[in-house]
Automatic annotation (TrEMBL):
Source species taxonomy: Bacteria, Pseudomonadati, Pseudomonadota, Alphaproteobacteria, Rhodobacterales
Keyword set, alphabetical order: Ligase
Signal peptide residues on this chain, from the entry's feature table: none
Database matches in Pfam families: Nitroreductase
Protein name listed in UniProt: F420-0--gamma-glutamyl ligase
GO terms, molecular function: ligase activity; oxidoreductase activity
Ranges of residues in domain Nitroreductase: 17-182
Chain segments annotated as coiled-coil in the UniProt record: none
UniProt-listed InterPro entries: BluB, Nitroreductase, Nitroreductase-like, Nitroreductase/BluB
């Protein structure tokens, strides 16, 4: 099918409006086939030079989960110290990960050393490989949401420590730690906006040159 209906476009827009970064999960499991259907969308994503540099690590064992959670708690405590008193109070009340509850946790890496793609497009800007991984994550995120699943992106982590704990190759760069599961609630408003941390801009600013 090469044509998409206006109803589909409306639905797609609604999907983007209701996507949300989720940090509050129910603990019931996610069906493996459903998770796989979401993960399959990685391979549909654009990538620089067709390098497909994404690498997915399922963080399943108690040992790995405990290490990741400890990593987050340490980084979060450090981040808290960086804010002045009013912001620190607000920050301390934010829930910034669902790592204690979410049934599925994925560390998404970029393989910086991949030979795939033969360097095309990444010569002057090797960071394009990481951007390719971000694009793939976005597809995964939207697909998961279309099934009613929530995804939460955690970046408050020491990536070098996580690499060691998950025993991944040194030239894999952490792009995202994703918590996946059934959300406790759905909303059209980002949680950080609800909490008074930051608002969405009312319009996209576009420059002309
Ligand atoms: C690259 C990236 C890193 C993020 N890291 C975190 C994080 O560590 N903790 C968190 O609670 N949310 C994190 N988020 C989610 C953002 O806070 C969220 O996307 C933003 O507030 C807008 O809300 P929405 O995604 O529900 O629209 C991250 C999002 C992105 C794209």
């Amino acid at each position: 099918m090469t044509k998409f209906s206006s109803e589909f476009r409306d639905d797609l827009h609604r999907l983007m409006r209701w996507r949300r970064d989720v940090r509050r999960f129910r603990t019931d499991p996610v069906d493996e086939a459903l998770l796989q259907a979401c993960l399959d969308t990685f391979q549909l994503a654009p990538s620089v030079g067709l390098s497909e540099p994404w690498r997915v690590v399922r963080v399943d064992s108690d040992h790995a989960r405990t290490a990741a959670l400890r990593n987050y708690e340490t980084a979060n405590a450090k981040a808290l110290k960086g804010y002045g008193s009013d912001r620190a109070k607000l920050y301390a009340n934010l829930k910034l990960s669902g790592m204690k509850e979410s049934p599925v946790q994925l560390a998404i890496y970029c393989d910086e050393a991949t030979a795939k793609g033969r360097g095309l497009g990444a010569g002057t800007m090797p960071e394009m490989r990481r951007y390719s991984v971000v694009g793939a994550i976005t597809q995964f995120w939207l697909t998961a949401r279309s099934f009613g699943l929530g995804v939460g992106w955690v970046s408050i982590l020491d990536p070098a420590q996580l690499n060691r704990d998950l025993k991944v190759p040194e030239d894999w760069a952490l792009v995202a730690y994703l918590c996946v599961g059934w959300p406790e609630e759905l909303s059209e408003t980002p949680e950080l906006a609800k909490a008074g941390w930051e608002d969405r801009d009312s319009a996209l600013s576009i420059l002309s040159r």
